[in-house]
Input
Amino acid sequence: MVSLLLVAGIAVAAFVGFNIGGSSTGVAFGPAVGSGSISKTGAAALMTVFAVFGGATAGTNVIETMGGRIVPSSQFTLAASVA
Output
């Protein structure tokens, strides 16, 4: 049961991440791609690099705030994440 919830959670997280990235990339890189300054592949690569970099550097602060100051860490369970 836990492995099924884990797979479902990962699938949902990937889907949401794909949609968030898709909506943000167009706004950020649309003018550069439209003017021919950078290719679509180059824009996707830049967005990926900077999203991972931002998550690695600022993501820790978000996790600490959500996991300790706003929501008690005991509330973060696999079942609650999927629900």
The mean pLDDT is 81. The chain has three helices and no strands.
